[in-house]
Amino acid sequence: MASSSDFVQYVAEQCSGAGEIATKKMFGDYGIYCDGKIFGLICDDNLYLKPTESVRPLLRTLDMRPPYPGAKDYFYIADVDDRDYLSMLVRKTCEALPEPKPKKKR
User: Fold this and answer.
1) What is the pTM of this model?
2) 34 near 94, Cβ under 8 Å?
3) Residue 102 CB neighbours (<10 A)
4) Which CATH number fits domain 5-96: 3.40.50.300, 3.90.180.10, 3.40.980.10, 3.30.1460.30?
5) What distances in angstroms separate CA 28 from CA 1, 2, 6, 44, 106, one per listed residue?
6) Quick one: which of 17, 27, 29, 52 could link to 96 by a disulfide (CB 3.0–4.6 Å)?
7) Tens digit of pLDDT for each residue in 87-103?
8) CB within 8 A of 30, min separation 6: which ones?
9) Hey, which residues does 40 pair with through a beta bridge?
């Protein structure tokens, strides 16, 4: 089951306090980015954040699961309705992730 565009848009709006949020369709679901850095996935109308040690203690509930079969575990975020909480998690996740590699010119 793929994610609905309404859910993807809602999650992107909820995360918008962290920076410029963008989504990109990938393999039938979505990657979600903040200021050009991918920080999570939206799969089957669920939000998953890349796991980082700095975010682990900030989670209300530690629930790790793979976003799709065969994937590594990500932080599963059930509470996407709390805009401030979600924006804080996204901001802290992005601070802990490395900068994206520059794209090669063709």
Assistant:
1) 0.91
2) yes
3) 6
4) 3.30.1460.30
5) 9, 6, 15, 9, 27
6) 52
7) 999 999 999 998 877 77
8) 3, 8, 23, 24, 41, 42, 43
9) 32, 49
